[in-house]
Amino acid sequence: MNAHDPKLSADHANEIGHETSMYEKRKAVFPKAIDGAFRRFKWLVMAVCLTIYWGTPWIRWDRGPYAPDQAVLIDLAHRRFFMFNIEIWPHEFYFIAGLLIMAGIGLFLVTSVVGRAWCGYACPQTVWTDLFQHVDRLIDGDRNAQLRLQKAPWGPAKIARRSLKWGIYLGISFATGGAWIFYFADAPTLQYEFWTGTAAPVAYATTFVLTMTTFVLGGFLREQVCIYMCPWPRIQTAMLDEKSLLVTYKYWRGEPRGSVKTALKAATPLGDCIDCLQCVAVCPTGIDIREGPQIGCITCALCIDACDKAMADVGRPRGLIDYCTLDDATREQRGEESVPILKTIFRPRTLVYLGVWSAIGLALLFALGQRERMGISVAKDRNPEYVTLSDGSVRNAYTLKLRNMESRPRTYRIVLRGLHNGAIYTDEMDVAAARRELTVEVPSDTTKPVRVYALNPRGSAPTEFAFLLAATDKEGGHDTSETTFTTAQGNGQ
Amino acid sequence: MSKPRLDDATGVETVGHEWDGIEELNNPLPRWWLWSFYACIAFAIGYVIAYPAIPLLDTATAGTFGWSSRGDLQKEMKAESVRTAGMMSELSKASIEQIATDPRLRRAAIDGGRAAFKVNCVQCHGNGAAGSVGYPNLNDDDWLWGGDAAAIHQTLVNGIRQPGDDATRMSMMPAFGRDGILTAPQVQDAVSFVRVISGNEKPSASAQRGAAIFTANCAVCHGANGEGSRAVGAPKLSDAIWLYGGDRKALTQTLTNARYGVMPSWGNRLDPVTVKMLATYVHSLGGGEAAPAPDPAAPPVAAAQ
Predict the structure, then answer these.
(1) Do B5 and A387 lie within an 8 Å CB cutoff?
(2) pTM
(3) Which of A71, A319, B44, B197 fits A61 for a cystine, CB–CB 3.0-4.6 Å?
(4) Exposure string for A245-281, b = 16+ CB within 10 A, e = fewer
(5) CATH 2.60.40.10 segments of chain A
(6) Would an 8 Å CB–CB cutoff place B129 in contact with chain A?
(7) Which of the four CATH numbers 3.20.20.450, 1.10.287.70, 3.50.80.10, 2.60.40.10 does domain A374-485 have?
(8) With 90 as the cut, is the pLDDT of residue A348 above it?
(9) pLDDT tens for each residue of B43-72
């Protein structure tokens, strides 16, 4: 809101036509420690996020003797995804697609209500930057001490401090990068293999790459990621509307700003802002919220905590910087009552998002409950389409894929449906043993290919028929796959 | 093009470009972006030196690492041959009968045989081994020279009517019509008889005359009832499968001019393991026969090897 500040505009006026550099060095940010309601909420979110990230692979889940006992496991080698009592096969990937769509609509929902809350609290870049900034304070002291150390010349003491700090950065980064691989293999086994040097090279490579990205992005680039690299702020900014809650400096209440002493001497009454710069000091991205909403603001609300504390110190009401919608900002300037918070949250747009989000979720749950855990698919040999045997009977060959998605071996019957004079036998059986029905055992969690020959007597016409797969155990279940029987007839021969 | 001016909302200078009222701010790039750009250039220079990069007239710069995609392929092929060496040595030691009875060896041999079939056999027998006129279908249960694994293997090693191979499968059908052994009407009578015993025609006077001709001229190889003989590769004439066609025209042609199908011997073209794998693969196509009961008088196969 520079337009409201004549002094700033005058400064800028002098810059026109000046040669300014095309490149800008990163201005290091040394955010000051702050305590307050939002800071505590941020602690909580950070604790939850990090616990989920580091803890999840270690949760055990008993699935019986034939399946892994890791609660959440992305088994790329065997193409299975385990999540507690849900197991997903590649052909069921639409569940993941559904979850991603839910995540997208969830983001619309959250953004339309509370703006860039994802950026401010839950984004990994925010969580890890926050963590690294606490390390800074632990080693170098708070903002002023950090500033002093930054300006101090390099000497043994500074080298020691920097080495220690970067060492801790590396340690956290290694723990972060290293934890990722446990989602893709049995965690205790992989950890043993990792430390004994017997894990797969890709485990070490992944750990190294993620360690380095965490070290560089969390330790050094920090807010540069949000401002220059991430597309999210642009997308989210486009999704905000005049009813979204934003971290807002209420300039109509704060301006003209001035310290308490200045205010005493001033001819006209000043605003509530005492220009203590605490909101700038605590900002993890180093912006001045008083310049209005901007791309660098991740809406972490730490400036609200800082300003509330300053207002309390000088005995003025809290909320000079506060979550506020654009609508409410206009109303407040006109001296009207603000809209009740529930009415701001529950409006048609958010209710539609919520409805779509819940509908997809319920549909996924329904599909999950309905899905069949066994299946058959038939691929008919097309070269040759049929084989005439010496006695004139006709043989067709099929590859049956028998799918057992249960975590136990099952016995199935393969039954001919149609092909009334026909008989079937596998490539491991003698033709003399051909009959109408075969029994096959399929190991747990496996698709078993079975090559089946179907025989039909001399002079048979081409026909359609089906293979029925039926489970023989008490849980039962069946699936059918239709196919054709080809003969010389109808082939122009 | 408009004049550079200060943007009200941000206080940043514009670059002076304008499209339908949309202007571009002249924000500086971050310095680290510049460094990463330089780093990319440095990497690219290193890459051009290390790897093949600059095209010349008929080649390209080789690069100091000496990498090539052909070299990569050779490495992969070498690694693959090291990987399969154990199985190959097992297959070379095992007899064709042992491979047929050991599921692990059989599976490996079928996979290897399938690949070798695509290279060496599909030209005549077709991609699905279904053959065509004059080239037998290998999927069915009709075998000219024997359908157990050992017989197929021998056919592969020595071929059929392969000149210069003393052990080749050899037989020769006379050209009854062309050489004047039978007259044209006699050929027609014999054709009638053959079509009757294979169930393609109803008995007729011609077929009755043909029966006597068949007994005198054909039965010595094809058997009294047209059951064929594998010892001389004489096809069974009473079944539903015809290598050269079973209609009157095709049979007349066969009896008049004879047939003389040749298959090359593969024993001197391919290595022994590949031939064994091919035999196992062909045996697995659906018509393979069990090994004949061992003759107690003959020495065991394992001892003979």
Answers:
(1) no
(2) 0.80
(3) A71
(4) bbbbbbbeebbbbbeeeebeeeeeebbbbbbbebbbb
(5) 374-485
(6) yes
(7) 2.60.40.10
(8) yes
(9) 999 999 999 999 999 988 989 999 999 999
